[in-house]
Amino acid sequence: MTENVTEINTSTKISQAAKRVSFAGGLLFFILYVILPFIGSAYLVNLLLIFFIYVAYSEGWNIMSGLTGYVNFGYSIFSGVSGYASAILIIDLGIYWPIAWIAGAVFSIIVALLLGGIMLRLRGSYFAIGMLALLLGVKLLFASKYLAPVTRGGYGFPFIEPVSQTTMYYAAGIVTMFSIFIAYKIITSPFGTRLISIREDEEAAGSLGINATKEKISAFAISAFIGGIAGSIHVAFSNYLEPDTAFSTQWTILPIVMVLLGGQGTVWGPVIGAIILTFIEEIFWSYFPGSYMMIYALVMIFLVIWMPKGIIESLKDKEVLPRTRAI
Amino acid sequence: MGVSAVLLQGLLLGSLYGLAACGLSFVFGVMTIINLAHAEFIMFGAYTTFFMAVILKMNALLTIPFSMVLVGIFAIFIYLVLIKRVASENQLVSLILTYAISAFLWNFAQVAFSSTFRSVPFNLGSILVFGSNFPVNKIISFLIIVFLIISLHFFLKWTDIGKAIRAVAQNSKIASICGINVQQVRMIGFSIGGALAGVAGGLIAIQWSVFPLMGQDLILKCFAIVAIGGLGSVPGALLGGIILGIAEALGTSYWDSTMANVIAPLLLILTFLFLPQGLFGLKERVD
């Protein structure tokens, strides 16, 4: 009896310690994040801005595909749609940029609810392929002459958004912290448990009374919002809007690799993956500008075969990290 | 163009699409793997034909067997090194793996061969059918495809390996009890899928152009075709290809070619929703 009580105390202490570590780490990052533009170079601010966008993309993808196991190969739809919507709102309608960015993300949610209602009734592989098809379809639609009066068609257009890079950096940081927070809240909540149960065995989950389609659509919509708002910032940062880059498969591949590397379904997995891969990307981009996507693909191959669980789950398996879903 | 001419064009186009999708359907039938890198295998075949025809100055038709063999061997390599390791896992893992392989291949092609559109010189003039000019090379390609599909059919029906492949496709557990080496058959099956992709690539190189991203458009058309025809069914793939070809030909004639490209993803999603097993789809697998 005494052993059991000690064990319970130890595991509670570990979860508490885990929460404290998370909090302390977050506080440290927050302080660094706030003062960076004052002590660091413009290059560093730029790099961290990209990093924040990638973390947000990855957390967004993770919330849907990492938890439910429904691989979303069309994730770029959300960032592209939101990017287009927000840019058009700012350039054509002169709307204040934070409102435009969030409006773009809300537009992504609407798209997700419409598409999700259809696509999420399909089984896993069919969903994945269908999303791949949808991405191409949406890209063609935005490039077509039917939407060209609004979207300027296939050639796109350059623009400058009335936001400085430092402001974008701070906004991206806020979006990233928000996305990690949402991921933490979802993963440690009953909602998150329901999503994970869908991944593990959808039919059994259904027999327990879980409405899988409804849960999937919710996760899909949240994923779309986060991907959307990160996409708005990304497009603002790129200063050029065209369907091929806005809806590029790159913004799907990158989050997938980062989440696979860090650990799908974990809170900090996407962050770890983003840290490592942004670092790799910066190195490769200087030396082999054309090849870094190739390297990413190789990393993805390696991960899927030899480390499908990702870093954080592997560390949890080895008892280095506590077995709590809060990490 | 008259309707008959458009239909014939659709048939010629569709046969090529059908061959491209055939390999994908075949591989799924034998090993339940959806090979997202299939279109990049096609691209590999296309580049092989291009290099042999342009650099080695071979007759384009003669390069087709080389494309077939080269991609077939490459497929064996990919299977042994990568695919075999995840074959036992759930389908989504192999989906991500083949997606990654595809991403690697087309990025590699962009780096190695640059994004320039290449073309293969092979012009035998055209003949007049139904009041429109049809290039002879498209008709020859149609004949090659028909010959290949018929050969494949007899290969599967009469040879021992063919029967082994069909056995594994139907029920791999019982096939292995009967003494069939399932791993080996899967490897051969994947290789045949690759070989078919190689031929499709060569024929596409002759008729259209070769460029690194050609797989990205094609893979969706292949999926649409396989969805219509039914995963795992080779005649279904051919029929689905012809259906898509005719639909696109009609779309290009009476609408415009950009919107004709939307037909494939649209058909794909509609088929998934309303006819998920396709026209000739395999019933629930016993194993």
Structure description:
The complex is a heterodimer of chains A (327) and B (287). Chain A is built from 15 helices and two strands. Chain A has 327 residues and is mostly helical. Chain A has a domain at 41-248. The model of chain A has no long low-confidence stretch (mean pLDDT 87). Chain B has a single domain (3-274), classed as Orthogonal Bundle (ABC transporter involved in vitamin B12 uptake, BtuC). Chain B has twelve helices and four strands. Chain B has helices at residues 3-31, 38-54, 60-86, 91-113, 136-158, 160-170, 172-177, 182-207, 214-229, 234-254, 257-260, 263-274; strands at 118-119, 126-129, 132-135, 209-210. In chain B, strands 1-4 form a two-stranded antiparallel ribbon. In chain B, strands 2-3 form a two-stranded antiparallel ribbon. In chain B, a hairpin with a 2-residue loop joins strand 2 and strand 3. The interface between A and B is large, with 39 and 38 residues.
Please sum up the structure shown.
The complex is a heterodimer of chains A (327) and B (287). With 327 residues, chain A is an all-alpha fold.
What are the key terms here?
heterodimer; A: mainly alpha; two-stranded antiparallel ribbon; 15 helices; 2 strands; B: 287 residues; mainly alpha; globular; disordered C terminus
Give the topology:
The complex is a heterodimer of chains A (327) and B (287).
Chain A: H1 2-39, H2 42-68, H3 76-93, H4 97-119, H5 124-143, H6 148-151, E1 157-158, H7 165-187, H8 190-200, H9 202-207, H10 212-238, E2 240-241, H11 243-246, H12 250-262, H13 269-287, H14 292-306, H15 310-317
Antiparallel strand pairs in A: 1-2
Helix pairs in contact in A: 2-7, 2-10, 2-12, 2-13, 3-4, 3-10, 4-10, 7-10, 8-10, 12-13, 12-14, 12-15
Chain B: H1 3-31, H2 38-54, H3 60-86, H4 91-113, E1 118-119, E2 126-129, E3 132-135, H5 136-158, H6 160-170, H7 172-177, H8 182-207, E4 209-210, H9 214-229, H10 234-254, H11 257-260, H12 263-274
Helix pairs in contact in B: 1-5, 1-8, 1-9, 1-10, 2-3, 2-4, 2-8, 2-9, 3-8, 5-6, 5-8, 6-8, 9-10, 9-12
